[in-house]
Design goal:
The protein has 278 residues and is of the alpha/beta class. It is 46% helix and 16% strand. The longest helix has 21 residues. It is globular.
Length: 278
């Protein structure tokens, strides 16, 4: 077992490497989306710790140091990370504690749009020493987004509900990256005039969406779909345009999962025609 002196000396060496501009070799990720980006960049060998929701890392038996929100600080420190990456979901107090132990911390705010997703992915490429790969993925993703938009059968100002919670009903808001799933199709978010994402079924009825997309929540998502189908006065129910989408992809702000989700949405809006892109 390492002594306190040995641990502090190791931290000192790690910080010297960071100051010299050497890419971190022991990264702890406190968010599933950040972990995904590490894997997309083929930098998983640099990852030593993750959350209990980081499916790719769990498959490789990486050390779990956190749940969705709560971080095991002692276990994180014991892994001797030279960098901890996090989102704003992790409490500032936790991050401050880690920094007080001499650990470098980088926080990635929730991106507001697809462009910010790409900017953060590029930053991850810089951090891990994979800028070239990051630029390649970003370029390809932007090209695919443009082709997907051009593949839409017709650009109509459809009213769209993008539901991400059921009890209470919670919807995607403007100025969030998930709103781009709507705007890129030429549609209009029924929550465009809202500042908070909670709404009632009565509100949805009044807005009368043409499409309803429900982020998968296990059985709950199918129950929600069936509930909305019973509201025959809603345009989406009349035309059977109520769908579920994969939460792991739709809610993860990465260039690759964004493109995959947009592809799914446009296929559905094109009446399940074969993709014209992939």
């Amino acid at each position: 077992m390492k002594t306190t002196r040995q641990i502090l000396f190791t931290f000192f060496l790690l910080q010297v490497f960071v100051l010299q501009g050497i890419n971190p070799q022991r990264i702890v990720s406190l968010a599933p989306s950040l972990t995904k980006n590490i894997y997309y960049l083929n930098a998983e060998n640099q990852l030593v710790g993750c959350t209990s929701y980081c499916t790719e890392a769990l498959a490789e038996n990486k050390e779990v140091v956190a749940s969705a929100i709560k971080v095991n600080i002692e276990k994180t420190i014991s892994l001797l990370p030279d960098l901890v990456i996090a989102t704003t979901i992790t409490s500032p107090e936790t991050l401050e504690t880690l920094m007080n132990f001499g650990i470098k911390v980088e926080v990635f705010p929730t991106p507001k749009n697809f462009d910010e997703i790409c900017e953060q992915f590029l930053r991850m490429g810089e951090i891990t020493g994979n800028s070239k790969s990051a630029l390649k993925i970003i370029t390809e993703s932007k090209q695919k987004v443009n082709r997907l938009i051009n593949s839409i059968d017709s650009i109509d100002s459809n009213q769209i509900l993008f539901q991400i919670g059921s009890d209470p009903i919670f919807t995607v808001l403007p100025n969030t990256f998930m709103n781009d799933f709507i705007s890129f199709t030429g549609g209009e978010n029924i929550a465009n005039d809202m500042k908070h994402g909670t709404l009632t079924r009565e509100h949805v009825l009044a807005k009368n969406p043409d499409y309803i997309f429900i982020v998968s929540m296990g059985v709950v998502a199918e129950e929600e779909k069936n509930t909305w189908l019973n509201f025959k006065e809603i345009s989406a129910a009349k035309t059977n345009n109520i769908y579920t989408v994969d939460a792991d992809k739709a809610c993860s702000p990465t260039p690759i999962t964004f493109v995959e989700t947009l592809d799914t949405i446009i296929k559905l809006m094109n009446n399940n025609h074969e993709s014209k892109v992939f």
